[in-house]
Amino acid sequence: MARTITVGAAQLGPIARHDTRRQTVSRLLELMREAHGFRCDLIAYPELALTTFFPRWPIEDEAELDSFYETEMPGPETRPLFEEAARRGIGFSLGFAELVIENGRKRRFNSSILVDKTGRIVGKYRKVHLPGHSDVMDRPGQHLEKRFFEVGDLGFPVWRAFGGILGMCICNDRRWPETYRVMGLQGVEMVLLGYNSPIGLGDPFELDALEPFHNHLVMQSGAYQNATWVVGVAKAGLEEGFNMIGQTCIIAPSGEIVAQCATMGDELIVRKCDLDMGAPYRADIFNFAYHRRIEHYKLITERTGAIPPLETT
Ligand code: CDV
């Protein structure tokens, strides 16, 4: 019997700095209802989907900074999402800023959760590849993720859920082959990922102009080289003066984009994904156990004196 997940990729248009959680959650609910109308099993939202992309500002005031983070999930303002999901029998993935107190110390992560059709959290991921800087720099739109988040400490787990093997990663993670490969080695069949990628920070300009190309390049390669579906969900449009690329898309294990958003606002795209579509790739061209040459990779790096690979099995 075919194993399928009907997935909705819920692109978000801009979220303003002073938009309330209530306003934003109502937009997410609207998209969830639409996804339910399309009989989606699962809806995927972007990175930091509950707020504006606040790490662009050097926020000094601790209380103001804290206001962008969730201290509980679900909390009073996000509970309606969980309730609606359970009522309609639809799962979701959601990116948000996470604040936990451990041993009296505040810890901050850029996180995402996977919620099943009963409204239960089945997985949590904390972003590993944090772009930008920790020091405040004199440039517009600086990227202060290293200042406002710790490197995720949960690795790249996968979960048996929705009848398949699902994984998550967040934004800059998608540019690193290791992200997909670590999940690929665990047999991942669908990667859910949200992103906030602005145009206009590039230096030199050529890199900036290539941003839309690079966005799809990395996700399509990650999908193909690991025989997995990739669902890339953007924050799009002009947010607080910064142009966020859209290009939300659903990518098949062939590496082909099979659905893509056409706007820079709130928009849902839907695709029924055959989880077995990656099987021929895993059995042949990307049969990892048969073709990968770990020992050889080690020999080459030893000879050239290059930095040894992190992954050795
Ligand atoms: N949120 C991100 O991780 N954004 C980065 C930008 C700053 C390069 C990205 O990789 O898209």
TrEMBL record:
Gene3D superfamilies: Carbon-nitrogen hydrolase (3.60.110.10). PROSITE patterns: CN_HYDROLASE. It comes from the Bacteria. CDD domains: DCase. Keywords: Hydrolase. It holds the Pfam family CN_hydrolase. GO terms for molecular function: hydrolase activity, acting on carbon-nitrogen (but not peptide) bonds, in linear amides. Residues 5-277 form the CN hydrolase domain. This is N-carbamoyl-D-amino-acid hydrolase.
